[in-house]
Design a protein that fits this description.
The chain has a single domain (11-118), classed as Serine Threonine Protein Phosphatase 5, Tetratricopeptide repeat, CATH 1.25.40. The chain is built from 6 helices and no strands. The protein has helices spanning 3-8, 17-26, 30-43, 48-60, 64-77, 82-118. Helix 2 (17-26) packs antiparallel against helix 3, helix 3 packs antiparallel against helix 4 (48-60) and helix 4 packs parallel to helix 6 (82-118). The longest helix is centred in the C-terminal third of the chain and has 37 residues, at 82-118. The radius of gyration is 20 Å and the shape is elongated. It starts with a helix and ends with a helix.
Length: 119
């Protein structure tokens, strides 16, 4: 195997980036998909599409900050990437909603404690 062959056939755990990609896209479990996408990215860190797909899996898991970081990486590699930009905006919206909901729940929890102390 020549230098170029070894460069294009790099493997992690016996699989190429293409093989890990196929596993990821056929997987159902979001955690497993992220694990497989991470292996693709170790082999091809400039694969903007995989960063975007990885972000979508984090959205499914409601891990919005990690999703946003993945979309940011996709956009860093490919600044004109409408899907990644839209996905990032969507994740940011969901993160704001989640934080607002947690804030309201915290306020209600505080009122309940205060009411109990008064009685």
């Amino acid at each position: 195997m020549g230098f170029l062959d070894s460069l294009f056939k790099k493997k992690i755990e016996g699989k190429t980036a293409e093989e890990w990609y196929r596993l990821a896209t056929s997987e159902i479990d979001p955690e497993k998909k992220i694990e497989y996408f991470d292996k693709v990215l170790k082999l091809k860190p400039d694969f903007a599409g995989v960063w975007n797909l990885r972000g979508l899996e984090y959205v499914i898991l409601r891990r919005y900050e990690e999703a946003i970081a993945s979309f940011d990486k996709a956009l860093e590699i490919r600044p004109v990437y409408p899907e990644a930009r839209y996905n990032k905006e969507d994740a940011e919206t969901e993160l704001r909603k989640m934080k607002a909901s947690e804030s309201k729940a915290g306020e209600k929890g505080g009122e309940t404690i205060m009411e109990k102390e008064e009685t």
